[in-house]
Write a structure and sequence with these properties.
Distance between the termini: 54 Å
Number of strands: 0
Radius of gyration: 17 Å
Number of domains: 1
Number of helices: 8
Strand content: under 5%
Structural class: mainly alpha
Helix content: over 70%
Shape: elongated
Order of helices and strands: HHHHHHHH
Length: about 120
């Protein structure tokens, strides 16, 4: 009850961050919001935290994909997660997550070559 009251009173004081919370499920909204409020996040020394949230969002999206699909091309993975990076960097990111044990997947050279 007290927490609810505190949140209700603080919400109008930080609309940028309230909007950020609502954008966490849609990467297109998240990227637009970060661009629109970049100066505010920099002023508050929170831009690093915002980027960390973005990376975490993409990581969780990739993990969900590995649970849904048996096979998926690299291009499809990049498109579905809406990674704002090229396929070469996406491949590097996926390989790092596989090596760290964060996702269970394999990249096959012929699939990578086909998706380019």
């Amino acid at each position: 009850m007290i927490v609810t009251e505190i949140v209700r009173r603080l919400r109008p004081l930080c609309p940028t961050y309230t909007e950020r919370v609502g954008a966490h499920t849609r990467p297109d909204r998240l990227l637009v919001l970060v661009d629109r409020h970049r100066e505010q996040f920099n002023r508050d020394n929170n831009i690093g935290l915002v980027h960390q949230c973005e990376r975490s969002f993409h990581k969780m999206s990739i993990q969900r994909l590995t649970k849904m699909f048996v096979t998926l091309s690299l291009g499809d993975a990049v498109a579905r997660v809406q990674l704002p990076i090229g396929q070469t960097r996406a491949q590097t990111c996926l390989l790092a997550r596989i090596e760290d044990g964060e996702i269970f997947a394999a990249l096959f050279a012929e699939w990578v070559a086909q998706s380019r």
